DNA sequence: TTGTGGAATGTTATATTATAACGTAAAGAG
DNA sequence: CTCTTTACGTTATAATATAACATTCCACAA
């Protein structure tokens, strides 16, 4: 792996870790431009693709945004729960759910390669606050 | 001039039923323009939103595309399995999976409102064909 | 009948997300 | 030092989606 790639990716991870929630590719680009004014979308998307392949970040398909992995980056498909109120995301690895899912889709011979499991709703904190009102 | 709500939506459903797989909003727009050359993206997106709210179609978040519902349109969140080879989509309703999912995300008090469950892979047919080669 | 309010649509413009195509530069191997 | 590979730069454009406001249609009531 080239040193150049890792440096950009590390900076992107830092930004994403410091960000309170999911970040879009273009918001990330804007932040990156403070250290490199000429950064282009292409570069960001390439690095995002690499980080995603490595499992270091996950793409939220239902939001066109990205979050850092919250677990060991070699885990299987995870469940991402997204609070629509505060924007927080929690990642859960649950082999049981995956197994059941594969059973269901496998009934007609479907062979699963990639799972997208995203749950929208309210996190514990926001849900409690709703109840008060 | 324009087709009022239900008529447009019915035409969109027909197009989607005749289409072999998921269709993008703009591909749908292009087909609609054969009967109404001035149709605009806004109109299509509005009708897609309405059909989605009614449960008559589902949006594939991981593909930016839409498919007709394959079940009674009042069912709970379903599992959409997408063949990356032939583009076919199968819809499964599986309460057990949902229950398990809610249990997992509920561990920290998360309250689920909407589930996105999309599985990419190979359908039975395409998987068999792969094996032959 | 005619007016009127709300929903759907038209119209125009723009925002947001993502990739294509091709050239250049950097790092590592030998 | 050359070769190769990969990352990166640059420019352009494609693809997806929404904002903002005007207009039209239609149900329904005055
Ligand atoms: Zn992860
Ligand atoms: Zn929250
Ligand atoms: Zn359905
Ligand atoms: Zn297939």
List keywords for this structure.
133 residues, alpha+beta, Arc Repressor Mutant, subunit A, Dna Ligase, domain 1, three-stranded mixed β-sheet, two-stranded antiparallel sheet, 5 helices, flat, binds zinc ion, DNA-binding, zinc (chains A, B)
Give the largest interface: A-B, 36 and 36 residues
CATH topology of the largest domain in chain A: Arc Repressor Mutant, subunit A
**How many domains of chain A?**
2
Q: In CATH, what is the class of the largest domain in chain A? A: Mainly Alpha
Number of helices of chain A: 5
Low-confidence stretches of chain A: none
User: From the alpha-carbon coordinates, what is the Rg of chain A to the nearest angstrom?
Assistant: 17 Å
Number of strands of chain A: 5
Full CATH superfamily name of the largest domain in chain A: Winged helix-like DNA-binding domain superfamily/Winged helix DNA-binding domain
Structural class of chain A: alpha+beta
Distance from N terminus to C terminus of chain A (CA atoms, Å) equals 53 Å
Short description:
Chains A, B: Homodimer. Two copies of one chain form a homodimer. With 133 residues, chain A is α+β, with helices and mostly antiparallel strands.
